[in-house]
Amino acid sequence: MTAPSISLDELERDALTEIVNIGVSRAASNLRKMIGGEVLLSVPSIDVVSQRRAARLISEREVSELIAVRQDFEGAFSGRALLIFPETNSLELVRAVTGGELSVQEVLEMEVEALAETGNVILNSCLATMANMLKRSLNMTVPEVLRGTGNSLFEVDETTSSEGLVLFLYIDFAVRKHDIRGYIAMIMDLPSLATLKDLLDEFIARVVGEDG
Amino acid sequence: MAESSYGGDQLRAILAAAGASGTWDWDIEADRLAVDQHFAELYGLTEPLNLAALPTATFFKAIHPDDRARMRIAVAGMVAGAEQFSKEFRVVTANGVNLWVHGRGQTHFDESDKPVRFTGLLVDVTARKRTEERLRVAQSAGGIGTFEYSDGFATATVSHEFCRLLGLYPASILPVPTINSVLKMKDGPCLIPESHHGGPPESLDGTFCIVRSEDGAERWIARRGEIVHEGPDGGYRLIGVIYDVTESKAQESELRELNDTLEARVENAISERSQVEEALRQAQKMEAVGNLTGGIAHDFNNLLTIILGNVDTAIRRLDGDTDPRVKRALDNAQKGAERAASLTQRLLAFSRRQPLTPKSIDAGRLLAGMSDLLTRSITESIAIQVTASDDLWVVEADPHQLENVILNLAVNARDAMQDGGALTIDARNVTVGPTHEHEVPAGSYVAVTVRDTGIGMSATTVAQVFDPFFTTKEVGKGTGLGLSMVYGFVKQSGGYIYIDSAPGFGTIVTLYLPRQFVASDEDAEDIPAAERGKPTETILVVEDDEDVRAYTVGIVRELGYRVIEAHDGASALKLFNGDQAISLLLTDVVMPRMSGSELAEAARRRQPELRVLYTSGYTRDAIMRDGKLETGVDLLSKPFTYTTLANKLRDVLDRSESNIVA
C-alpha cells in the first residue's frame, strides 16, 4: 500500500469537515421536514486514505454486509460519493424514517426506495454545499443503491493499479432517537483532489483572514 | 438559551455547578456577540465594555493563537448553517494561564432555514484534558492499549494504542469480531469475550497469540483488567489493557528449553567430568608405574654394569687355550645381559627418565634403520613405504627419541587403519620462505612426513590431539600422552609439527626439524678400539655401590690411568688436598647425602679446571634442564662397557680447554 501522494493538512481537513457539516445540517433539516421527526446529523472527523485502505478500514469496523447510496459528481473536481451503512443499520434507518409503523415485509420492500431518497438528500446537500462554499459548480447523477463488501464498494481488486484517494467521513446520524452509524466516502482521482485542496486553501484564507 | 425561564443569577448558579465557564449568544443577522459574566472573566473582558453587544471578533480574542484558525473555520461553518458545534480549544486567560475549554453550541434557524443565531456554552475541561494527556502518554510510552466492553454490545471502545498493537486502523469503536479476528487460534479464548459466550469471564488475565492485521506479524499479547458489575440485573463491563509480551514470551520459552535440557546437560557435564577423572586416574597410574619402573631400572642398571663388566673382563682374559665352550658361554651371558640392558633402557624411556642427548643425525639413515621395527609393529594388511632423499641435510636431535616419535606416529596410523591401508613415511629437504602453509618460520628443514589412509580426524579432534591426556582410544589402551610427548620432543628439538586430516581422508603428520650446518658426527661414534689412558692422568672414581665401583676402578686401571676412589661425596672431596692433581672426576649421579652434581660443584671450587664425567642408571633434574643435558655436562649411561667407558674418558679428557664449563 503506497502512501497517498496528496494529503490534506489539519486545517484543510477541518475546513472540509465544517463544509460537509453545513451540508449534513441542511440534509438533516430537509429530512426533519420529510419525516416530521427529530433528525440530527454531524460529521466529527475525516480521513484521507487510499481506496484499498478505505476498503480495509470499513471492513475492520463493519462486520456485516454494507449497503450504499452512490452518486457521481462532475465539475471543478469530479468523483463518486458514497453514503454507506452497515446492512443491519439500513433497515433501522428505514424503520426510523418511516416512523416504525410498517411490517418487516413492508420495510424490506421499501428499503431501497427509502435509502435512495435519504441518500439523495444527504449527498446532494453535502455536494451542493461544497460547491457553494468553494464557489464552484458541480453536477450530480441520480442516486443508485448498492450492496457489497468494502472491497466491492471501493472497487478494489487485484488489477487496481493507480489508486484514487478516498475522503472518508464518519457521520453521527440520529433519527427519532435511533443512533445509526454511517459513513460518507468521496472517491476522487489525484487531479480532482489537488483542485479540492486549492479550493479549500482559498476558503481558509477567506475565513481565517489576516490573523491566521 | 439565554432567554430561558431561569433568571440570570439562577442560570449562572446552575451552569457553575455544571462546571460551565460561560455562555455566548452570537447574533448572525446583527453581527453582534453577547456573553455572560463568566465568559467575560474567562476572556479578560472588563468594563466599560457592553457585554451584550460586542463585536463578533471578540469570540476569537482569547483563543490560543495555535487554535484560532481552526476555531475560525468551525465558527464559519456554524454561521453558514452547520447545526452542531462541539469543539475543544485553549483559552488564554487574563492571567496568562492556558485553559482547555469545551465549546458546545448550536445554530438557530428562521422559518426559511436561514441561520440567525449561534449560541453555546464553554466548559473548563482542563482537568479532564490533563488526565487524558496522562492516559495518552501512559499508553504510547508504555505500549499499553485500553479497551472497554459493555455486556450486550457488538462493539468495544478502544484506544489508538490498542489498534496499533493489533495492527488495526486507528478507531475509537471497533466491532468485537474485528478485534477477535486477529487471534491466531480461531477456536481459542477471545481477546474480547462477548456476552453470548455465557456470562462474564472469570478473569481478564490472559495471553494471546495474534497475527497483526496490518503486516501479518505474529505477536504475543497479554490482557489484564477488571470486570465491573453493574447493578442487580447482572450487567457488566470489561475494562482492561493489552500489551505486547512477545519478547518476554520468547525469553520464557528459551528459559523453559534450557530448563528442559538441564538434566541432559548435567548428565553430559558429569560424563565429561568422569572421563577427565578417568584420564587423570590413568595418568596417575602411569606416573606411579613410571616411578616404580624407573627405580627398578636404576638398580638393574647397577647390577647389569657389574655383570656386563665382569663378563667383559673375563672374555678379555681368555686366551687361546681356554675351552671354546667357556668363550661361548660368556658370549651368551654377555648377549643376555645386553638384552637386559636394552630392556631397562626402554623402561627408562617409558618412565621419561631418559634425558635427551641430541646428536647430529641423518634422518634417512635413521628411517632405514627402523624399517625392521616398523614392519614388526605394523600389521600385514597395511602397506608400508619408507622413502628418504639421498642428500638429506643433517639435523640435530636425539636419535632414540626421534625413533620413538616415528614409531609412535606409525602406531597411531596403524590404529587408524583397522581395515588396512597404506602407511608412507618419507624424509625430504624443505626450504621455507617468508610465507608457509603451516606457518613454519623461514629456514631450512628436514621434513619427516607420516601419512596414512585411515579414518582421519575432525578439525575438533586435530585441535586437541597434542593436549596431554587426550586420546581417542579406550581407557587403558592409550596413555593419551603419545602425541603430547611427540609435540614436546619436536619443540624441544627446535622443530615444528603439523597435522592435516579430515574424516575419511586419512592423516598427514609432518615434522619440521631444523637443518644443522655442521657435519654429522655419527661416523665418529663407532671407534672400535678402546683408547687408552696414561699413568700421568689421575681419575677419581666415586660410586656408592661397592661392586660397580670395583668394576669401574678395574676398567679404568686396565686402561692405563692412575685411579683413586671414594664411596661418597664427602670422602671424595678430602682427596682434593693438593697432594695430587686429579684429571677427571668420574662420579655416579645418584648417591646418598651428596649428589654427583653437588660433588662436582664442590670439587670445582677446589680445582676449577676439573673435568667431570657422570655415570647414571637414570638421571634426575640434578644435571638436566628441561629433560636435556646441560651444555658441557657429560653423562655415561649405565650399564657401560669397557669400550664405551674408554672412549668417553678420552673424549672428555682430550676436549680443548675452551669447551670446559667452569
Explain what the structure shows.
The complex is a heterodimer of chains A (212) and B (662). Chain A contains six helices and seven strands; from the N terminus they run H-E-H-E-E-H-H-E-E-H-E-E-H. In chain A, strands 1, 2, 3, 4, 5, 6 and 7 form a seven-stranded antiparallel sheet that branches. Chain A is 48% helix and 28% strand. In chain A, helix 1 packs across helix 4, helix 1 (10-35) packs across helix 6 and helix 3 (87-98) crosses helix 4. Chain A is α+β, with helices and mostly antiparallel strands and 212 residues long. The mean pLDDT of chain A is 83. Chain A has one domain: Chemotaxis protein chec (3-Layer(aba) Sandwich). Chain B is an alpha+beta fold. Chain B has five domains: 8-124, Beta-Lactamase (2-Layer Sandwich), CATH 3.30.450.20; 130-256, Beta-Lactamase (2-Layer Sandwich); 279-350, Helix Hairpins (Orthogonal Bundle), CATH 1.10.287; 363-514, Heat Shock Protein 90 (2-Layer Sandwich), CATH 3.30.565.10; 538-659, Rossmann fold, CATH 3.40.50.2300. Helix content of chain B is 39%, strand content 25%. Chain B has a six-stranded antiparallel sheet, sandwiched between helices. In chain B, strands 9-8-7-12-11-10 form a six-stranded antiparallel sheet. In chain B, strand 18 and strand 19 (507-514) form a beta hairpin. In chain B, helix 11 packs across helix 12 (399-416) and helix 12 runs antiparallel to helix 14. The model of chain B is unreliable at 1-5, 475-480, 520-528 and 658-662 (pLDDT under 50). The interface between A and B is medium-sized, with 32 and 27 residues.
